[in-house]
Design brief:
This protein is mostly beta strands. The protein is 6% helix and 51% strand.
Length: 77
Amino acid sequence: MLQTPWLSKATYLVGQPVGLSLANGQGVTGVLCSLSEGNVVLQEYLYQSQFATKRYPYDAVQDVNAFPGCAIPGSPF
């Protein structure tokens, strides 16, 4: 398996909402479904109640980051 700086971090984020930075400068968000066969598999929201599972090759990924918690004034969350 190809080792990249973000890959070890991403293994702990499977099942979590993430932001995916792509090497072409774009970014996408969704739930990280898996890291398999050289692909990042992401469940992305399209619109209304539609979602799509998309695959991004490891060499197209620059970084993977977990979503931060929500900072709501006066809330414990």
